[in-house]
Amino acid sequence: EDQVTQSPEALRLQEGESSSLNCSYTVSGLRGLFWYRQDPGKGPEFLFTLYSAGEEKEKERLKATLTKKESFLHITAPKPEDSATYLCAVQASNDYKLSFGAGTTVTVRA
Amino acid sequence: NAGVTQTPKFQVLKTGQSMTLQCAQDMNHNSMYWYRQDPGMGLRLIYYSASEGTTDKGEVPNGYNVSRLNKREFSLRLESAAPSQTSVYFCASSYSLTSDTQYFGPGTRLTVL
């Protein structure tokens, strides 16, 4: 069974204080690893898809990286508007289903 | 282009009552999904529809039924609501089951008393 574990559960940052979120996964053949952002009371919003170890994707202050066992979401010089819950999900190569982690809630203080 | 829309936004039911959650997408997507989200847990797939006319069970289908009304609409029905079904429900859609992006609706917050 596919498993996704995200750490930490919560992260409080000062504006400008860079940090990283971790997503560890076990899957029988990875089709893709996905990062979503979720604001309170809203649905998840797609950020990135990573397909193979060594791949990196960037969007504004966010950078996602992938190894064979985990993915990191790096937040560089965060701003208060980066406050959200970040969700990680994996899709196995022999399946359609996305398996989600519980998420990391990031709070950035001005 | 509204994306994925869901109704209602909030609902309170008594144990044993029934209701239908509605979902529609205007992106001409073939596949649609229903998830539930509970505190401390990841999103869990309830049912999905690979294409118009097909539906299949996901990870947690017990107590739910679905209908793919047409290509745009996918509804989720609770026949006899239970407190364990208190949750936030999200509908999502994608071009196909293997698409790299699922687009989510705003969610329905359901409380069963």
Description:
- The complex is a heterodimer of chains A (110) and B (113).
- Chain A has 110 residues and is mainly beta.
- Chain A contains no helices and eleven strands.
- With 113 residues, chain B is mainly beta.
- Chain B has strands spanning 4-7, 10-13, 19-25, 31-37, 44-49, 56-57, 64-68, 74-78, 87-94, 103-104, 108-112.
- The radius of gyration of chain B is 13 Å and the shape is globular.
- At the A-B interface, strand 4, strand 5, strand 9 and strand 10 of A face strand 5 and strand 10 of B.
Throw out a few tags for this protein.
heterodimer, A: mainly beta, six-stranded mixed sheet, 11 strands, 60% strand, B: 113 residues, mainly beta
Order of helices and strands of chain B: EEEEEEEEEEE
* End-to-end separation of chain A: 41 Å
Q: What oligomeric state do the depicted chains represent?
A: heterodimer
User: Which percent range fits the helix content of chain B?
Assistant: under 10%
Q: How large is the share of residues in beta strands of chain B?
A: over 45%
Tally of contiguous helical segments of chain A: 0
Largest interface, counted by CB within 8 Å of the partner chain's CB: A-B, 23 and 23 residues
**Mean pLDDT level of chain B:** 95
State the separation between the terminal residues of chain B, measured CA to CA.
Answer: 36 Å
What amount of the residues of chain A lies in strands? over 45%
Structural class category of chain A: mainly beta
Order of helices and strands of chain A: EEEEEEEEEEE
Taking pLDDT < 50 over at least 5 consecutive residues as the criterion, the unreliable ranges of chain A are none
Q: Roughly what is the average pLDDT of chain A, rounded to an integer?
A: 95
Class computed from helices, strands and strand pairing of chain B: mainly beta
Return residue spans of chain B where pLDDT drops below 50 for at least 5 consecutive residues. none
Any idea what the shape of chain A is? globular
Rg of Cα set of chain A: 13 Å
Summed up, the helix count of chain B is 0
